[in-house]
Amino acid sequence: MWAVESIKKKQLLSIFEIDSRESAKNIDVAMLRALLRANKDDYQHQLKLALAWNRSDIAETDIFTADRRWKQEELADLMYSAILEDKVNFVKLFLENGVSLKDFLTVRRLQRLYSEIPQSGVLFDMLQKRLRERLSPSKTNMSRKPSTAKVSVTMDDVGHVIQSLMGEIYVPLYERNPERYKPDGDPKTLCEDPTRELFLYCVLLNRQEMARLFWEEGKEGVAAALVASNLLKSMASELENDTELSEEMSEHADKFEELALGVLNECWGEDELRTQLLLVRELYLWGELTCLRIAISGNHLNFIAHSACQALLNNIWMGKMALDTSIIRLFTCIFIPPLVPALIYFREDQKEEETLIEPLGTEERHYSIAPGSIRRPRPVVARTKTSAGMIVDNIPEGEDLNKSMEMVVVHSSGSGLINNQPTPQVQFKEKDEEDEEDYEAPDTEEGELDFRSSGKRISALTRFYLFYDAPITTFMHNVLSYILFLCLYSVVILTQFEFNVLSVIDYILAVWIFTLFCEEIRQLITTEARSVSGKLLEYVGNYWNLFDLVNIITFITAFALRFFPGTFSAARVLYSLNLMIFFFRLLHIFYINKEMGPKLIMIARMLKDLIFFIFILIIFILAYGVASQAILYPNETRVGTVLQGIFHKSYFQIYGELFLEEIMNDGFTCEADYATAIANNTQRCPSEIGTWLVPVLLGLYMLVTNVLLLNLLIAMFGYTFEKVQENTDKIWKFQRYDLIKEYSDRPPLAPPVILFSHIFLLFRAITMGCCKKCRPGDSVMKVKLETAERKQLILWEYLNSENYLQQTRREKSQETDERVHNTQEKVDELKDLANEQDERLTRLEEQMIKSTMSLESIIQSQAWIIKSLQQNNLSAREAPPELEDTSAEKAPHPKAPLTREPTSMNLGKRPKTVKGRRRTLDGQPIQEIHQKARTSPYPMCDVNRFPVPDDKVPWEVPFSSYNPVNYTADCVLAGPPWADVDLMSMSIEDRPFLMFNQLDEKFKGAVERTSFIGTYKVKDKLPLNPKGRTGMVGRGLMGRFGPNHAADPVVTRWKRDRFGNKEVHPNTCRNVLEFVAIQRRDNGLWAIPGGMVEPGENLSMTLKNEFGEEALGKLDKTEQERMDMSKKLDKLFRQGKEVFKGYSDDPRNTDNAWIETTAINYHDEEGYLMQNFTLQAGDDAGAVRWQDVDGNSPLFASHQAILKHVAGFHNAHF
């Protein structure tokens, strides 16, 4: 009955036929569309169904139609659900169809999002911990965990979590504006920047795709990406037990750092000065930090090493002085200050551009945004000049920045149009009039950056101020002051250190140390952390600060002990040790030097290795020292003598002081009686057994410590050096920031006169009530921009971010198009192969028909002959023989008559080939059976292979008499770094397992053991050649078992006549290609340049290096010639086409090792690029030349087949 009732409602029936596997996959689409038709008048319900089924494609085509207009309030709840459930495609769809994030995201809705997060993950655990702290009335009740199940999360809790992840230097937005974000506020209160809030929400939940979407929608892309990277790194460090999730977060953090670098690189290429301002601009939405400070706190080495950051640090370091100011001029002006106006040049003297924002040129520059990303027109605004010297558009206060991003026109000085509309111009003085104004020292807070050119003339007095205010000048003053301090300190210890008598120099040193102590107090107070504990941790986190504390405390202790007779000698010792530590502190100045700085980093890393090594060494010292002391001097009761025997002798014996006279009692003055020795406090004589046993122990001890442990330490240092060497430059550039920041913050005066600066700072702090303005740490390395200036800079960054995203999408699209093109080529090749096979089958059928007809004719002829013989009585009298059974069960295996087995007479000849050929997926024709891999003798030796006929080459064909020759060249057996261990010399059980058919990461740089052909077989822990038998086992001349990957650069150009026209071959009527060919030294054959891909080496780098070494004689060039050649090769190798990737039929191949190559064609279409090179044979090439691409030219290995494909690609003669 229900079926009948259902049929009556035909509009609700949907018929779906499952007739294939593909249609079965789309059954959910049919069901969803049926439900949508059932609710065709309820669009809201339809959208909820599509959201529940997560089918944004159906919603886009069937629900969001052109005749339907959605209101903001209709999509608000669905947008909330999509964000909460991490449905990225729906969020995109809602944004494209009218949802405005500014109107959607209220503070109350944001709190709900954080309150309904999944109850698992780092964010949930940290919020729960924060709620327990907030609800606990005191720390005494913290052990009793209060219930937080019914407590809602506030934005202050979220800000606390973000601050704990970012560090105390980050000031949460919710803390700075508590009225807007309070829990019981107005439900309709909107967030200041909704895109930023949703971006942070997704980052904290590790929703990478959704976070990327909101990052693209938001502003301040560099800062946002860096903050996201910092948050993810911090959350990854919190996950101690979940390694997989921690690695995933770290990977996402690296991706955001790449985004920040990409946008920064785009900005740097557009405007270098404005990019530097972008890095130090105070970010109101991001904790009042700067991009540079965020990158430093997150240890973003690549970001800090970028040219923009390094150029900014150079500008900060030099202050307002010109960057090319020499050290000689600086030292001269330091010692002779009146020469400052004459010798020191400033940026204003270099006649730089008057403005920072306005680009050069007389034409307008238009920055367009991708359609659809901005929906509102830009208002007409006027241009004004800021106090910082920037010409910007006046964006009215209160206007949304997004309203001004549809089209930005940055004008030249002669333009008066904005958006092609006339605008009122603000009249400025002429250039000559501006030059007449004097530049005055900026009225900025101490530590605030001022590195931009004002474009005004600098007065003489201002020149002195700017010179002494530069961090490099402060640094040099402090260095000279420190050297003078060390000299005075050394004089006191060496010549004027007397009991209870203080000289003038002693008083100077005491005041000097006091000023150093005051400076340390100032540094502690002005650290960027806000709490006392945070300031202490930040201060102690700098190792050089610990040096300073130890120095000051040691000096004070020694100074006090100096006035007591019993401790005077101890005071002298402490003074000496204190001076030694002060000398070590001098190493700090070398951090600024590009050559010495990286060496200090290596020393610091090696000291860590040394500390671990000392723990191991102490064990051996104690073991030998205690044993030798007990044997030589049994029952010794004098503690000092025992400790000296254990540690003193054992330690110095490592360095060669063996004490053999004492140990063997050979001419050593000692007392045989123990009681007499104690009474006279003299040395005991060693025991009789100890005189011969301890030297034996000493020999073993020296063998272990001198030979084993010290060489182990050297190896550890060598490993650390190689490991650090790769990133030393980045590490130095990163740590350079701390030194520049320190001297940017430090008062210009050097100790001991720095005391006057400290008195001034203390007086200012008291008079100003300890307001924030008196704390230099609040504004160090930071620039606060005016409103119009800030908005214009944000707008410029957004435009460059859009350009970067468009470029990224374009590159990704090109890669996709290239893959589609390659796939289409492969499909076409497969079609050609199928057609070729059909033609062959047709020919075989025709031959079979002809053969059948011939056999029938023969049978008829035979029957006629037999009949004729019978009629003439000439038939045989015996009965005809019985025919043998030829069924498949009894039929012997036919012998393949394709080839004869090679004998000793033809060992040097190539085996006969099989005519059947096929093509790889790359379209490269290859032979079914390798030929050159079976030739004898083996290259560069007289070893002949075991003969293998064509029909016995495949491993699947039994070959019981197969007895291959075992050969591996001596140069390979010597164990060079590029070779594997010799498995052939080991038994099967002793052979180690190499990581065949995968990337072998056990070796440095990782060895690629996968094959382009596919998975190859491994037998007895040895790989088998996927192309079959070769007549030889081992590795021959190759270093690796399995595939040995090579790279062959095919550099081609068109062959031209003397008039510059392309030559045409008379037979094929096609243009003739030429390629760079080298003549191999080992066999004299011409070949394509190439070589092996080393572990961890980039393929493109191998191609460029091998071509330069073999065809251009790179190894014989000077260093400068190599650099020039590398730049030219970069232009040539910029565009390449992969023409072959697979097995190479090479005479060096064996059963267990073979060559697989990747050939890339670099074509010089016009012939201009190769004119810059002179061909010169080098490395293992005997000669080099341009050679015609011709199928009749004999070449090495599979190079002929590679060139055939190159010719086909260019439609050239072959």
Automatic annotation (TrEMBL):
Per the record, the major location class is membrane
Record-annotated Nudix hydrolase domain positions: 1054-1209
Alphabetic keyword roster: Cell membrane, Coiled coil, Membrane, Transmembrane, Transmembrane helix
Residue ranges, compositional bias (Acidic residues): 432-448
Membrane topology per record? Multi-pass membrane protein
Catalyses which reaction? ADP-D-ribose + H2O = D-ribose 5-phosphate + AMP + 2 H(+)
Could you tell me which residues belong to the region Disordered? 414-451, 876-918
Positions with biased composition (Basic residues): 909-918
Classification via PROSITE patterns: NUDIX
Enzyme Commission number(s) of this protein: 3.6.1.13
**What InterPro entries does this protein map onto?**
Ion_trans_dom, NUDIX_hydrolase-like_dom_sf, NUDIX_hydrolase_dom, TRPM, TRPM-like
GO CC terms in record: plasma membrane
Q: Which residues cross the membrane?
A: 466-493, 499-518, 539-561, 573-591, 611-633, 700-721
Q: Which domain of life is it from?
A: Eukaryota
Its family?
Belongs to the Nudix hydrolase family. NudF subfamily.
Q: What does this protein do?
A: Hydrolyzes ADP-ribose (ADPR) to AMP and ribose 5'-phosphate.
Q: Assembly and interactions?
A: Monomer. Interacts with GLOD4.
Query: What protein am I looking at?
Result: ADP-ribose pyrophosphatase, mitochondrial
Please name the source species.
Answer: Branchiostoma lanceolatum
Q: Which gene encodes it?
A: TRPM2
